[in-house]
Amino acid sequence: MNLSSRFACGFLNFSIPLFILLSLLAQTTLAQNSISFEQYTLPNGLKVILHEDRQTPIVAVTMSYHVGSKDEDPTRTGFAHFFEHLLFEGSQNIARGEYMKLVKENGGVLNANTFKDRTFYFEILPSNQLELALWMESERMLHAKIDDKGIETQREVVKEERRQRLENTPYGGLLDETMSRTFSRHPYRRSVIGSMEHLNAAKKEEFYAFYKKFYVPDNAILSIAGDINSKQTKAWIERYFGGIPRGATPMKRIMVKEPIQKKEVRDQVYDNIQLPAVIHSFKTPALGAPEYHAVNLLATLLSEGESSRFQKSIVNSQQKALFVGAYPIAMKEAGVSLMFGIVNMGVEPNQLEESMEREYDRVRTELITQEEYDKLINQVENTFVNSLATVEGIAETLSDYWMYQGDPGMVNKEMDLYRKVTREDIREAARKYLVPSNRTSLYYLPKPKS
Amino acid sequence: MKLFYSFPISVFFVWAATIVNGQNLDRSVRPAPGPAPEINLSTPERFTLDNGMKVFVVSNSKLPTLSVSMVLDFVPPVEGPQAGYMDITGSLWRTGTKSKSKEQIDEAIDRLGATLSTSSGGFYASSLSRYKTELFEIMSDLILNNEFRQEELDRIKKQTISGLQTEKDDAGAIAANVRRAMVYGNHHPYGQITTEQSVALIDLMVCRNFFDHYFRPNLAYMAIVGDISRAEAESLVRKAFGSWKSGPAPSPSYATPEPPSETRVVIVDRPSAVQTVINIVHPVSLPPSSPDVIPVSVMNTLLGGGDARLFNNLRETHAFTYGAYSSLSKDPLSSMFNANAQVRTEVTDSAVHEFLYELNRLRDTIPPLKEVDGIRKYLTGTFAIALQNPRTLAQFAIEMERYGLKPDHYRNYLKVLNDVSPMMVQGMARKHIFPDHAYIICVGQRAAIEEKLKRFDAKGSPLIVDLYGRPVDLSQQKVDPDKPTK
């Protein structure tokens, strides 16, 4: 079951947003090699990252705006993602329908995705088309343009995306159902794809205000990786982005503090499914915060590989689950460790839940062995190294480090942070976070047949 | 220069009145590309073991990792009443060897931080390159010394049956079953449908028999890619697989599947559905050695590859769907053309209409040169993008060997691609796409769609089938399991 591809919402449905995997993937570094890059900030506040890799004559151009569903008006859920769709409509100099075509007929691919904290656009092109991609992204930032036809079309497209992802897919609403109960006040509780009602209500004027506020150079990161000449690239960046003015007013974000959870939240959801599922959502530290790495290793321990605790005991030995996994969801202001299991036929959800609880209990009481610890480090490293196999992977990883932790150089530092986590730290993290009072528990149950 | 824009007047809505100063930038001028970069196609190293196993090595030390994959080249058998045993064997051969239990094998793989997934036709493994010796030892033990155990088979069967259970509410999985049943039927290996009943019949013997007949080194192509030299790779492979015994493999042959004589609408009822999954399908003969392969890829990309005609029509113009696509890829036995989308229930018939319109338009009219040229450039660019993964080179080499392609096939790829003309694109559509000989499979709310879909069915009466493509007996409202699907 590929959960990760379900998390973010995107413009086209044939690419997997890398971002969600970051919590596992991007947190270690290469054993020997380090990733080299340049970083600087234009006078208008645009952050720039350049990574040169001449192996293949292609380039990935990515633009990440620090705006996601958490920044929406609560009566306009889905707005940030809807808006992402509209930014493919064109600009002063790019006619409607031309944006995608321009990239395609120049040998490239493009897409975008939106999640809680940020909206991410990218193009991958033959390296001789770098200037085109920079022009296009600058057009999008400076003077995007849409018409009524574009708004109404994308409104329906987004509603179809919602139906396809959430309503017509078994367990499709899982993340929204879970997050809305996990957070009582923080905007992470809101759905990224939004509600039908809010999507219907979104107005043209509201898009304009949103654009003016968030789509400004001082709220964005341009990250480029591939077959580039750094000097020439910088000159083009200056040419196309240098003259774009900063946002009119300094960005004010409403920071909502989630109250400390005192007791377990339990609920159930009915869906068009055959087999019940059990979800435990634990609140965990934000991306990069202390204990963040220990919590990630905890998730790896529970569900990475056939010998992981969940897999070995619940799936293979007890055979209570068709599937059970641990998914750390990395976000800027708070984290969530999501445990999700589907029962095997004939197994009741409470039986599966008991087994999951026994595994939490075990890691809270017993120290993991040194052998098991070494395994976790190897697993995290292998996954991470593979995520840097492509130029788009590198561009996105560097961009996200800057966005989420204020330093793209974390890419070369974080393995040390992982290795500093001790076996005792992992047990401590389990004692602190993997406890019922910090948990939202949800049973997904088949709708009664009418 | 003027960079002041007027504000929302009637149709157009313009954002951001902005002055860009300090430079003479005419933003209406689109940057021209630099000189086209050279695409470098290096040839993988290769060697063959005495037992016939062919090995391809692409050394690339950019990352401290390596991957090893193996594919077995055989024509699959028809599984019959025990459908699903090939897939189950694909899982089973990872679960025990003469000296190791499943737990010990899992532990050995995970300890390295490695991944190893097995299937009915080979395996894929990856690890940090510092553990390459250990990785080869594990793979060798699994291939040469595997032991199939009843308790592991029972566990996999139980998982499989639970998995089939969840698919009953998964419209995509249902559509996949129905198109297999309609296009291939149960006398062709591509038409096999795994059900709870067929899984229940699978025993150790049928799995063992399959493995022993088809897992032969003389059928095997291995690709080793990453931080490893040819010499290292050869010594590891010889040690790991040198003693693997070759032998003859069955080579069944099948009648070429033919498109239906007339177009039929096929409905699977899902009363709870908010969308209809539409698949317009039929078989196509497109073996990898066919000269049509490259022109067909241009034709299909123009029709339904990403933001192409189907996407622009059904999504960008009509907003029926999140995306509409088509696929048609080469295959030695039989290919399937599939034009597909998920659309909201109310527009199901309108969407089918637009699909058919686009298929017929491509057959009836030569596409504009500009459009074809855009697709050629797109495929040229994505060829370069694919090459950033060094596995692509190994895959090319294996394809050339398996399908007897000319040694310069991929070297000439871009040239051949650029020679594909608009007329050839139309020719490929006429030759390989048959809107009048297709199955229009719709998984959705029957009560809401059946009446409106009648006009697309040659008999004016859509076929109603169950989750596995078997006709539903309307008079008795029950499934007739013995009735053949084709």
Question: What report would you give on this structure?
Answer:
The complex is a heterodimer of chains A (450) and B (486). Chain A has 450 residues and is of the alpha+beta class. Chain A has two domains: 4-241, 2-Layer Sandwich (Cytochrome Bc1 Complex, Chain A, domain 1); 265-446, Cytochrome Bc1 Complex, Chain A, domain 1. Helix content of chain A is 41%, strand content 19%. Chain A contains 17 helices and 13 strands. In chain A, the strands form two sheets. A seven-stranded mixed β-sheet of chain A has the order 1-5-6-4-8-3-2, with helices on both faces. Chain A has a five-stranded mixed β-sheet with strand order 9-13-10-12-11, sandwiched between helices. In chain A, a hairpin with a 4-residue loop joins strand 5 (109-114) and strand 6. In chain A, helix 3 crosses helix 6. Chain A is globular. Chain B is of the alpha+beta class. Chain B folds into two domains: 45-241, 2-Layer Sandwich (Cytochrome Bc1 Complex, Chain A, domain 1), CATH 3.30.830; 264-479, Metalloenzyme, LuxS/M16 peptidase-like (Cytochrome Bc1 Complex, Chain A, domain 1). Chain B has a six-stranded mixed β-sheet, with helices on both faces. A six-stranded mixed β-sheet of chain B has the order 10-11-9-12-8-13, sandwiched between helices. Chain B has a two-stranded antiparallel ribbon with strand order 14-15. The longest helix of chain B is centred in the N-terminal third of the chain and has 18 residues, at 150-167. The radius of gyration of chain B is 26 Å and the shape is globular. The relative contact order of chain B is 0.15. Residues 1-22 and 475-486 of chain B have low confidence and may be disordered. At the A-B interface, helix 4, strand 6, helix 5, strand 7 and helix 6 of A face strand 1, helix 2, strand 6, helix 4 and helix 10 of B.
